[in-house]
Records
---
Amino acid sequence: MKTPLTVAVAQLNCVVGDLSGNARRILDAVARAKAAGADVVLTPELALCGYPPEDLLLRPAFLDACAIELASLAAQVEGITVLVGYPSAQGGSRYNAAAVIQDGRVVANYFKHRLPNYEVFDEERYFEPGTEACVFELKGVKIGVNICADVWEPGAAEVARNAGAELLLVLNASPFHMDKQRLRYEVLRERIADTGLPVAYCNLVGGQDELVFDGGSFALDQDGTLAWQGSVFAEELSMLRFADGAWQDRASAPLRPVEADVYDALVLGVRDYLGKNGFPGALIGLSGGVDSALTLAIAVDALGADKVRAVMMPSPYTAQMSLDDSREMVRRIGVRYDEIAIEPAMNTFAAMLAPQFAGLPEDTTEENLQSRIRGMLLMALSNKTGAIVLTTGNKSEMATGYATLYGDMAGGFAVIKDIYKTFVYRLCAWRNAQPGGAVIPDNILTRPPSAELKPDQCDQDSLPAYEVLDAIIAAYMEEDLAPREIVARGYPEAEVYRTVAMLRRNEYKRRQSPVGIRVTQRGFGKDWRYPITSRYRDA
């Protein structure tokens, strides 16, 4: 057997715009890889500037700063080859690039061929496509370079193979959604079938606004067999050995329930959103319901109990069991807990508005006012302490407008914005089954959900059963099915058309909602771009 080529896969958590910090993170990985005997270090896509940098790429000063930082980084590399992702400005064009660094300088560049312009991606806004291969040799192995979307379509990998590549190293910033890892294996095996090239796939890890990158880097042999599997939702540096056309490692894909992946994504998203933006802690309005309970559990797991504060704001309609359940949960989880009754504020607003509302019956206006009083209290605490308010509305509520604008939608980060109500319960059950015991009281999970804004209120007074509602929303929003096609699947016609109508008319609310973590293939964020003003009605 030939002397193995050792590839260090540096699965890093980079911060958008933190050029010097990202460079230090890369150089630390390089130093550790060199000490471990690595020949080449593979980093994620655009690791130097973080992904996605969005309109920072339109600023010439940003591109200049990236070039300066890359040169400084390269000057510190000796005795090892490093692949670094960065944005390159060349001749008036911008490229999503990978630099091959050896002996203190950049010896070659690769420009990404395939620019994704779908889902959350809009790289055609920023970059021009490359066309040339980048192949370099180490220890007798000819190594080709691809970047992320290059391997999701035919073409770029073949260009590398035709240029003599025997091994493909891929820099990636592939965001998480449910079932994403299976898709990655699938598309990489397609590229391997086309080219016969074994692959090392290095993915970014960490939260960036609504996106969470899950890592999960891996290596496949030329027959598509999984040779190595990296960790998910964590930074790591891994050493892989390659000799005689094959990886010398063997691995199996870990079997993780989808609930574990989604929960870990939410935890990482919260930790990085607060940590990277410098918030000292989080505030959560507890209701005694399942959504706020799940949000509280995630926040504590992400930040620690000492950085989370729960506030219960009971009204005259708040059931005693809601108070009891909230108190029991905070006892189990160990966060600061306060109760602020809102009845005095309700009475004050009622008196102020009485002349304006004279002769008009009570309706949802009075209900929503309660939610808005709570929002004002939470935002006042946020202003005073610097802690960010985590909103608790789920995807089902966001779709139908059941979350109150300027009320329970008030806040800075929407943790479960992309989690259907039915999946909220699945995540709670999964969390309660973890070592350490249940943190969410059973009564929260078994009682009928209610906003408790009027006597004996239940969610299902205003909405279809959540099992039906969530399926209709998913079919319309994520599959782009017309209402008649959803009805053909067996869902009640009246409920389908009512749900779709609610979804359409509440776009103006969603545009004003806080950014929230994306975990499905289509969330209410970058990949949902519907006009607020529209008269189109599909049948």
---
Amino acid sequence: MDYKKAVEDKEREWTDLYTRMDEDKGLIYLDSYKMEDLNKRKVPNVINVTLNDPAVFAANVESSLGSAVEQITVETEDKKIDTAYIEDFLKAAFSSANALLAKQDRGPLNPFFDQQMCRRGRGAARCTFRMENGVLIPEIVPTDTRYFVYEFKEDGLAWTGFRTTKPKVWVEEKYKGVVVAGKEAKMLDIWTPDHFEIYVSDRKVYEEEHDYGYVPFGVQTVPLGSMLQDSDALTHRGESIFFLIRDLIPEMNRLASILQTLNMETIKNAMQWKTRTGEGERMPTHEQLTALGGMTAAEIGGGAEPIRIEDVRRAAQMLHSIIETRIQRGSLTSIDLGTLQFPLSAVALVELGEGRDQVFLPRLGSRGLLNQQIAEMIIEQVIPMGSVELGTKGHKRTFDTSKLRGEYEITFKYFIKSPKIDIARYSIANAADPELISQRTKRRDIIQMQDPDGEEAQLYWEQAGRESILVRRRRIIESLIKQGNDVEAELMSAELGLTAKQMIAGQMPQMPQEKRPRPESLLPLMAQGGPRRSAKKAAELEATPREETEE
């Protein structure tokens, strides 16, 4: 099969999709707006304004996605599989891959994926963990999907093609005998289930077989846009964050340009010259009419006056407000951008947060699925190696890859927390009637905690420490030992007649019963014909001997 031709055919098929991606890039890079008329001709004498709204929108979304807490979970019904071990392995594997990218002056994986999901509407990466001269190369290469094409078959990828641009020196050093004309070379990498090919300026310079048995790429498309089967469906599949506001942004620029042009006209206002005949033989120039401190003579009944444009300005401002509201509905609200000028109720804050999730969650979900694909490839690739060392400097660990075998599910979960919305949810949960809804339901459905069962267990753990002196003492001793304060731990244990080792082991000392004072009654006693006395005071009076007086 001619894979190079297949790549070129696919690129032609995706032309409209690439056009959409390029237009979205122009929004983020704030390409200068140029007002055009209905015939697409440039409108003269206009002060063109390019608003920064799309770039601010993208920066806020990508920043929020980057702050999401990542949770790697391995689940299985097989009790022999150590899921925590596999989770630790995957964390170390991704850390090693990011460390390698940093050495190559490339960004970490997740921020790259987030940007791709936001701007391109899809993400992809090559995963090739391999041994070279006895050293593990933890390679995960993220790819810009604007220059990436692929074809699927029934059980996965059939092939992929990825175009890059490399410096002349780098190419000529890596591929001996290749001469690059100019400072850069256009590269094309093609991967199939059994081999890969490399082209420089459309000429094949390298080919090698591999034993992965599959195309070592993860590909994931954001599930937003069109899932129809129309001829143009691909153009609208895997939409960027701009798909709900893409056509409104130029209109905002148009209105801003109109308003700014009108503002300038106020400084140098359009004038009309009135004469009885409608002719302007003696009409002065505009500069003469509008010069600061100038004076213009006019015949009686004629003269000059400004052309009124108030209605145009008012209409432009109204339309600006309408479009701005629609843009917020399709992007982020004022609260997400930190520009809210007035307080909101807890319910309103939660509703706004749900609108925000419509932007964030589909992309976090796609990031999670892409990382899941990569994780599965990593495990499959390292199992034959027997033993591998992974992790960052100072945190490296050797893993026995035989412990990675078995059937289990890997999931990547993400949580974005907003302090404002969290407080709002706490407020709603606190207001819920405890006779109508349980604490667990509050934690799970209203507050939306990441781990409601774990939070409940933590509450019970803390409660045990508050209610039991022995539990609290044991935890303190254990903490002192972990910190290396063995002497203090032994002193505390000795007070209970035990050693620190015995306390940690859970041996129980003989605790003297605490003598608790008899509680006073809160109900006052009323003596007949006398003042109020407490029950305790009345008892004391009854028990006090009194001296009898002789009559």
---
Amino acid sequence: MNRMVDVTTTDPITLEVVRNKVDGIANEMQSTLLRSSFSTVVKEGLDASASLFTPNGETLAQAIAIPIHLATLIPIVETIARTFSLDAMKPGDLYIMNDPYLGGTHLPDIAIVMPVFFDERPIAFSAAMTHHQDVGGMSPGSVPPNATEIYQEGIRIPPLKLREGNEFNHTLVEMLKLNVRVPQVFMGDIGAQISACTVGARRVAELAGRYGYGQTLRIFNELLDRSEQLTRKALEAIPDGTYSYVDYLDNDGVNLDESVRIEVAVTVSGSELHCDFEGTDPQTRGPFNAVKSGSQAAAYYAVRAVTDSSIPTNGGCFRPVSLHLPEGTLVNPVEPAPVNSRTATLKRIAGSIVGALKGALPDQIPADSAGELLVLSLGGKNLSGKPYVVGEFNAGGSGGGPRKDGVDVIETDGSNCMNMPVEALELEAPARVHRMSLRTDSGGVGEFRGGLGCVREIEFLTDNIALTHRGERHRHAARGSQGGGDGAKAFSKIVRRDGTEEVVNSKLFTMVHSGERLIVETAGGGGYGDPNGRDRQSVQDDLRNRKVSEQSAMNDYGLSS
């Protein structure tokens, strides 16, 4: 039994001990979530997140997970607390939600929220969000790139009570199972989320048992205030001014020949930062719209990316940040606009905010990253005749920076997923991967080279496989900085059984059949600095490792044969 510690004031050591404790709790929740999940997209892709919140809905601690998940949980917890009232909640209660227009982000991202009690009083919220492999809709995987309204994207879940005390809402459970293609996997992932929340609730209650209810809440508030102060200090180091940036999505999945503009003006004024998205294109017909909560999450990520990484990440970090998101635009659409592919937009929002701040911090901020998470979804029946849905990710390269090369094939810009292992895809889907390699010459040239994309070749082993391809950077390359070159654009094609080749215009939903192949080449990051200044040994190493070709080594870097 823990001994109650009588603490009337919070000394710095205690404050730091509790900070590390709540961070550890969040990461233990994350570990539980990943180890307990059923779907490949979580087990291997790591597309799930866990976090703790104060009773008033501010982020207390978050796992090392998906930044845009973690920030989007903020309005979800607020919505649930407002809908059900904190005073009416009881131990054991569970809440579920995914509706983007009520605080969620897109339908596959389902949140489970558990109120945490100590001494019969609410002291925190424990929350977990998972990208579910399938939530219904018009295509397996629930990310149809050609959706034109949210009703085509899957089941919408408003704030609902999933469990009251120890009694599940069986009507709700059965309804959910009937609206997804792989109910066993779906419920397995829900169970993993509940396990993660349970771990978080147990550990927070143990912490409160040591310090007492009142002192624990005071420490929580002090931790948030401390992060706010440190964030404001970091923002004060950025020169005041307004800095602008424009970037583009290739298209909206429906109008394939029209790029989509994202424009942001970032104003730094003392210890505050404001992002104004006036000039961004109107909401799109296709599913690349980002609801307000998602746009907010992307901005929060960007601020953390340009401030001191040692600052504890919690709700205090976000207090100095404000946004103007014009209604009816790509970054704040009006219902029932489709939103399933919003990840691509959020990555571009985050990248644009960071890109704008190059004007203030040119010697600190790297070149543009590929900002591409190629999402592939396969669905149909496997060789045993059983239905399956499998999603997989393929990343591009990050941008070169002022002191180092970009990283090859890595997730950036607000998401933190993993490339899908070859073995995982082959285990879950009737497919064979013939090639997975780095893409030579894809990183932008520079004193510090951009990170490389990858090449992946997949052969399909059965007929009638529903394939969703959602890519970016096929039309607009990641830009170099300070004299560095742009990264290579992405490229994908399908080789049909008769030998014909179909080039994919970044977004596609189609049927593929046995013997046909999909070949994808993801984008590279931009280069940083004059390529003539690149260290000769680094060029030779790149040539030996096939990261650059002999032609590029000679023409771009002046390496003699």
---
Amino acid sequence: MPKPVTVTRRTTLAAISATAAVAAFPGLAEGKTEVFRHGVASGDPDATSVVLWTRVTVPAPLEVDWELASDPSFARVLRQGRVTAGPERDFTIKVLAEGLEPGGRYFYRFRAAGAMSPIGQTRTLPVGRVERLGIALASCSNFAFGYFNAYDAIARDADVDFVLHTGDYIYEYGPDGWGGDISRRIGRVHEPANEIVTLFDYRTRHAQYKTDAGSQAMHAAKPLLACWDDHESANNPWTGGAQNHQPDKEGNWVDRRAASIQAYFEWMPVREPGPGRTRMQFWRTWVFGDLVTLSTLETRHTARARQIDYDPYCKTINSHAAAREMERDTFGAVGRTMLARELEADLTAAWTQSKLANQPWRLIGNPMPIARTRVPDVVGLGLIPDPASQTKPLSAAVDMAWKGKWNLPFYPDTWDGYEWARQRLYSQARDAGVGDLVFLTGDSHSFWANRLADAEGRPMGLELGTSGITSPGDFIESGFDPVTAAKLDAAFADHNPEVVWTDNLHQGYVRVILTRDEGRASFIAISNILSQRYTAHNISDWRLVRNDGVLDLIRT
């Protein structure tokens, strides 16, 4: 295990300060505004091209030059061009650098208004024989809860080639929403000062998030593979609305969703949709030679049925039989969808091609947990006091005690609330000849190492889940002390056959390294997010191996 490294400032990549200015922009000339305040980023690569991104902080349309080179000194510039940044895209720039070599490593930069951007590094996807791939799995970066130190650690991680972000890249809450108290204490209050609803709001929030030093370091150092979850738009959206969208106060959901998606495509290094596709159909497949196929899911806007709320059942469920009946009639209801039919078709095509290429690994970028996760009888096990015996019990304790009494799923808004859709996905994979998927999952703010099975108990692969970059685990955030939280982690693993190990206590990321023979997963925790001083260390390491064709996890 590597020794923790103390980090006090960003040093991963040298950035060239924007010091020059032009007379047309007095603020720049006076040094009051940096031209490239939001850094640079790259992402969504294929074998011969990659998206390059930046944003210029200027008050009027401006020409921006870009260069891509094979060396950091730019002695050999391979591609270059000029584009115009304007208000129609919030002064963001996205360039598709094409005609590159497969598996190539490149450097890029932008120039505008006499200033130069930081230098970014990127790469294209490899083709042919590939021996190794390193991926950092990241999710749930809430600006209000702290500094994105895990991003900074990813930037420094020499074993990481690409970053997979499975969503909740931004959060929509206002200053008085989730994390508000902490944000005021550490000076990271959300902007604008309201829950974001309009295009201006979403643009402003994305801009704020990209001022974080750790975020800028990661984006400059590694290309991004992205999918979204719910908070890029609102909490728990489905095709017809969202949990915290109020039409009478916040207008039409369709308009709000469109604004969030437009801002996302402006501010993220992602490709525009291909012919016949819309921006809402945001899923991808990346092929890493003969080693790995990685496909991401869109689980919010194109097909998702409305989430089931437990509230109506709290007074009606009075037996385990009633609980199972509720699950069967709701979570397992036939036709209760999660994935669009077009996405399902693309997954089948990707898996079929992967099998034909004899790839050993098929990954799924998964916005939310898929392993079956029921709540143990936490009161009966003596893990928490019976809320009925307390004058002012924690609301989380009341909720957990009720779910545990009836052995109900912990998260009804995850795949556990869509049993029919989960089984449909597993059946689709089996029909394609793949029962060895590796789901790389975010959303829950917890680390997970899970063995997956379908409804008949047949192995379906593994799930590696990451905690939040800053978003806290449910147990700690709900008021349980660390000792109780650790006991709850152990109880969830003991109670659920699919859960091998979980950790609800830490923030961080997962490093996944895949070779032809096996995989390795390292769960990396960040010691501190309330300042930019932190250490990063492994809290758990696992091997991904095949036993008689079945994927398994072995702790090291």
